[in-house]
Write a structure and sequence with these properties.
The complex is a heterodimer of chains A (159) and B (131). Chain A has 159 residues and is α/β, with parallel strands linked by helices. Chain A is built from 8 helices and 4 strands. In chain A, helix 1 crosses helix 8. Chain B starts with a strand and ends with a helix. The chains are: A alpha/beta (159), B alpha/beta (131). At the A-B interface, helix 1, helix 2 and helix 5 of A face helix 1, helix 2 and helix 4 of B. Chain B: It comes from Caloramator fervidus.
Chain lengths: 159, 131
């Protein structure tokens, strides 16, 4: 079984609370909830960086985390790097009004911001688990199929 | 005079990206509300016509957290006139704040660097107004 890491690209938008929550939720997943199973890249590196950075979404199955319905992380990733496997829209999870609030700095965050971060982080984790499960299932099926072919028998391995 | 656009890199992987982000927010939300604004860097990266039209020829101060200079490069790519390219790590060195926190949270040292950069940006904007 190959080791699979999932890429997370967050918008980290500076104009609305959704951007801050997307950033904090992504950091929580990277540092705590799925440490070692996830990697990230700074979104603007798709333009400022080189070929290696632009390969990100081709090398890693990738989740875009966006703070608002403009979906900049998803669109920029697909424009410069590759198709994303899943998208998280903070505005859909927390509501448009909250996501578009102008309280953006860590110093201004609403009292219940940790709840918001957790909701988004848990959603990211669900997507990660689904992606990894799909990959493992695909690998297992391929393995069964190749075993079946090489032994000349049925892929179930028992007949 | 139209507002100066302050664009931080907000880099996800390093504390210096967070310092840049918080410094920009302090300027546009506290210190120079009427003279400065920010735009989401991620939006600039999309290359949408709307934001490119908006940024065309706009005076812009960028703050980057690493040598890749994402904020400066993307602002130029979007058509802005970048008048200052600041590097948050240089300010951290000047303040001898070598453990300013993490990419998730800043400590007292980190917030000190944020204030220092924000004051520097205010100086730059004030000089522009005099001209």
């Amino acid at each position: 079984m190959k080791e699979t890491k999932v890429g997370i690209v967050s918008c980290s938008g500076e104009e609305c609370l959704g951007g801050t929550i997307s950033r904090l939720a992504t950091r929580k997943v990277l540092e705590k909830l799925r440490m070692g199973e996830t990697v990230t890249i700074c979104l603007p590196l798709f333009i400022a960086g080189g070929e290696e950075e632009r390969l990100f979404a081709k090398v890693f199955p990738t989740i875009a985390v966006d703070g608002c319905s403009k979906l900049c992380a998803m669109r920029a990733t697909e424009k410069y790097s590759g198709k994303v496997n899943a998208v998280i829209n903070v505005a859909e999870i927390l509501g448009e009004e909250i996501a578009l609030s102008e309280l953006v700095s860590l110093k201004e965050l609403p009292e219940n911001y940790e709840e918001m971060v957790d909701k988004v982080a848990n959603e990211i984790c669900r997507k990660i688990d689904k992606i990894i499960s799909d990959i493992l299932t695909k690998e297992a099926l391929e393995e069964l199929e190749s075993e079946g072919k090489s032994s000349g028998g049925c892929c179930c391995g028992s007949c | 005079m139209s507002k100066v656009v302050v664009i931080p890199c907000s880099g996800m992987g390093k504390v210096y990206g967070l310092i840049a982000r918080e410094a920009a927010l302090k300027v546009v939300r506290e210190l120079k509300k009427d003279e400065a604004e920010t735009k989401c860097l991620a939006y600039l990266v999309t290359g949408d016509e709307e934001i490119k039209n908006y940024m065309q020829g706009k005076k812009c101060i960028t703050i980057d957290g690493c040598p890749k200079m994402c904020a400066a490069k993307n602002a130029k790519e979007a058509g802005a006139e970048v008048i200052e390219e600041l590097k948050s790590i240089e300010f951290a060195k000047e303040k001898r704040a070598m453990k300013p926190g993490t990419a998730t949270n800043l400590n007292e040292e980190g917030w000190g660097v944020v204030d220092y950069i924000a004051d520097k940006i205010v100086e730059i904007i004030d000089k522009m107004e005099v001209k």
